[in-house]
Amino acid sequence: MNLYAYFSDRIFAALDTLKADGVLPGDLVVRGVTAEPPRDPAHGDIATNAAMVLAKQAKMPPRELAEALAAVLAKDEDVVGVDIAGPGFINIRMSPAFWPRILTSVLELRGNYGSSEIGAGEAVNVEYVSANPTGPLHVGHVRGAVFGDALAALLDYSGFKVTTEYYVNDAGAQVDALARSAYMRYREALGQEIGDIPEGYYPGDYLKPVGELLAEKHGESLLGADETEWLPVIRAEAIDAMLALIKDDLASLGIQQDLFFSERSLIEGVTDKVAGTIDELRERGLIYEGRLPPPKGKTPEDWEDREQTLFRATEFGDDVDRALMKSDGSYTYFASDIAYHNDKYKRGFRNMIDVWGADHGGYVKRMQAAVKAVTAGEGALDVKICQLVRLFRGGEPVKMSKRAGDFVTLREVVDEVGPDPVRFMMLYRKNDAPLDFDFVKVTEQSRDNPVFYVQYAHARAYSVFRNTLEVFPDLKPESLNPVKLKLSLLESEEELELLRRIAQFPRVIEASSVAHEPHRIAFYLYELAGDFHSLWNRGKELPQLRFINAANRDLTEARIALVSSTAEVLASGLRILGVQPVREMR
RNA sequence: GGUCCCGUAGCUCAACUGGAUAGAGCGGCGGACUUCUAAUCCGCAGGUUGCAGGUUCGAGUCCUGCCGGGAUCGCCA
Fold first, then answer.
1. Does a structural domain hold residue A215?
2. Pairing of strands A79-85, A46-48
């Protein structure tokens, strides 16, 4: 149950009462009213801005309206105090008997507590990674991979029907370069001297096994052949090998996407979907032949003023119209991408999310313009940009030079520190802020390392469960009967603070989900872990606050219910982030 | 030059899409271990939210203009 959503219903009801009593005009439109936890707990449990937001419509001073509303809300049996503060905030204090219902709810729902129906089963498509299939994933891909995967899990938890997708760029010049590189390795495998790998080719050793495989499969049959003959064959097989590599890399982070969508299939399928999409747009007058002005500020050396096929992107908010055909007559990447998003829409996705790297920021407007055009305004595309990750080792930057080919691969990072720290740290920052990743810090066992801190809280909860059995051998968290617990025994300030934090989880899920910001869950878990560690330590100073009290079974049960609820929420949150909730620190 | 993102404590970052006295961690200082694992906790110090205007009951958040950092700029993907 989302306490705040639940309570805003009561506020709406109170407003209706005021309308019926003639205090408020009957045609008043309730909008912008929120029910949220106040920043300062001293202000109570729930705060609403209703009086301030509605004052103008009600033609009443906010404080006066607040008085009237407060009087109605005070009659609620779960409310023990209502006061008005500042410009017209209404602060509501819930009865102590109310809070335990949150725990009852957690214990009944367990791993589903906090899940939401705001998605209402609507289909949403999340596309992420989509790296060129020309080699293993490197560290630059990690963030988008983890982000997309966590966002998908979050949306799933919020009631959306999620499909995850990887767009395979298997149609451009880069996969031709891959094919040529693989062909060299093929010749090498057959004993030929190949010398240096030329500029613009892929020099990595990872193509050697591909060459050997090709040699094994084709023998010498492709050696004398013309490039036009061997290229499509080698290209297809090299791409397959690269995708196998990439899927393996993703699997090491626990990522498995639903669909790998081939760019080439758009053109080489039964119908040319790119041409089809362009035709659709042309019929609606959105395509024309024309010239583009050169970019302002600096004109490229090889600028050639020529007429080309353009999409009227400016009609949908873009800065310039965009080219769809290259000078050699093939489609631009953008043209295929429009067709791809059109295809997503036709497959039933009104909601699309693309996760891109920072270097594609300049591409957002045109893609959103294209989606607007191709879906006639029905589809929505949100593009999440992931900023760069900087690697450090013990505070020292890790040097990488892309030219020399010695970039750090995704696999190297995962192999060194494990998937959990990688995933958590990639989500412990807003996606559009740059992120520092330190190989040493992320495996440290200290508060400085949030991964550990949260994991430790979960493990500590399980340590309590183990210790409980020594005093009450049959007292297990999973055998507690939620309705029989004496939860009113939980009354210390620290316990209630933890309880209030647990009560906020559903709200955090919904807010993260609406904003497409999974990092909020990571921050929430860090705070929840902090509350739990804090309560734990209070038990050292005040033994009567310890979770296990041999002389009082009812109290112990109530506290185990609290600890168990904490563990459930930690586990649910971690599951969305894709991090294992461990039960023991080794 | 155009466009997009970012400027918040000494450092790294939050701030629930416009709410009350802007919060955490690190670092600094001072405390708590015969432990339900101190792998943790408690307290103190630290701010003109880059600058200047505007919008309104109310702005770190929205609008405009500057300053500073990053990304990108017909046919690459």
1. yes
2. unpaired
